[in-house]
Amino acid sequence: MRIIPLADPDRSPTGHQLAWLAAAEAGHPLGSAFLRLRSAASQEHLGELTLAVHPAERRAGVGSALLAQVVAAAGAERRRCVIAQAEEGTPGDAFLADRGFRRAATLEYARLALDPAAPSAAPEGPDGYQLLHWDGMVPDELAEAFVAGRSAMDDMPVGEADFGRVVWDVPRMRAAADAVAARGELLSTFAAVEAASGDFVGFTELVLAGDGTGDAQHYGTAVRPDHRGRGIARWLKAAQIHAVRERFPRLAGLLTDTAEENAAMRRVNAALGYRTTHRTFLYQLDM
Ligand SMILES: CC(C)(COP(=O)(O)OP(=O)(O)OC[C@H]1O[C@@H](n2cnc3c(N)ncnc32)[C@H](O)[C@@H]1OP(=O)(O)O)[C@@H](O)C(=O)NCCC(=O)NCCS
Asked: Core-most of 23, 85, 110, 223, by most CB within 10 Å?
């Protein structure tokens, strides 16, 4: 077996990734590993690992050999920790535990099955707030105000995982929206604005396939701490669900994942009809 470092030319403003191929002497591939290195100042300590070995080639040390390269590279890049994710009870779960990673967080995955025949009404929100909607990048005239509040809203817990605090700015928002558009997908955002101040106090994002079929994926949902407990998150998500059902009748379902300790978000999801599908663990290797 040989481990061959690959060059991934794809560099975005938010980071790049290192890649390795494990190949047999005869040349056929056995597995691959990717280490994502984010460039944001608050995430320069972090490497995110994705590692896969072909099912026919497992339990022969290929994963361990790839991981050794990843760990050496993370050290050379002065990363403080490497984080990887594996579903509960899978080979990845056993492998990461065996290789010295510790469980830093548990994520609960849930799905809302959409029934096109079921009645849907636009939800009522709490008094004193307005709802805004846009597709893709936030409109220019709203960008500064939305981005200013976004990091304060988005303090979601992820257990003990050392993800660093992402500070959003307009270029970062644009890069994220462009990445979704480049995949041919649609980013739909609902935001809540406090009428008296004009401040953004909450948002929820959903990413759909361009043809509006299959399952869509929820991205962030957050409400500013001083506006929590008023039903804004539930309102935002219910508005998003109502809108996509109207616009994309062939959409089958909505997927979301939430840290286990995020009781508020899990309660909102359960109340809106999302059902748990599986759990994954975030594993962390401290360097
Ligand atoms: C996880 C994965 C990469 C392991 O690759 P691999 O080449 O089989 O791993 P190794 O042979 O180096 O295994 C090293 C140790 O991990 C543990 N391990 C790996 N697979 C395991 C399994 N299915 N059940 C129990 N323990 C397992 C064992 O302790 C093993 O040592 P042993 O075989 O001497 O008992 C592979 O199963 C895979 O591609 N899974 C899907 C993707 C994934 O979950 N990746 C991890 C998160 S990014």
From this structure: 223
94 CA → ligand 1 middle, Å: 6
CATH superfamily of this structure's domain 111-278: Gcn5-related N-acetyltransferase (GNAT) (3.40.630.30)
CA dihedral of 18, 280, 155, 174, whole degrees rounded to 10: 40
Ligand 1, atom 10: nearest CA belongs to which residue? 61
Rounded to whole angstroms, how far apart are CA atoms 152 and 133?
Answer: 20
Would the CB of 94 count as within 6 Å of ligand 1?
yes
CA 111/CA 217 separation, integer angstroms:
9
- Name which residue sits closest to atom 5 of ligand 1, judged by CA: 63
Nearest CA to ligand 1 atom 39: 52
> Which tens digits make up the pLDDT trace of 198-243?
999 999 999 999 999 999 999 999 999 999 999 999 999 999 999 9
Among 1.10.4160.10, 3.40.50.2300, 3.30.70.100, 3.40.630.30, name the CATH number for the domain at 2-79: 3.40.630.30
pLDDT digits (tens, 9 = 90+) for 128-158: 999 999 999 999 999 999 998 887 777 777 8
CB of 271 closer than 6 angstroms to any ligand 1 atom? no
What's the pTM value of the predicted model, to 2 decimals?
A: 0.88
The 10 Å Cβ neighbour count of residue 16 is 15
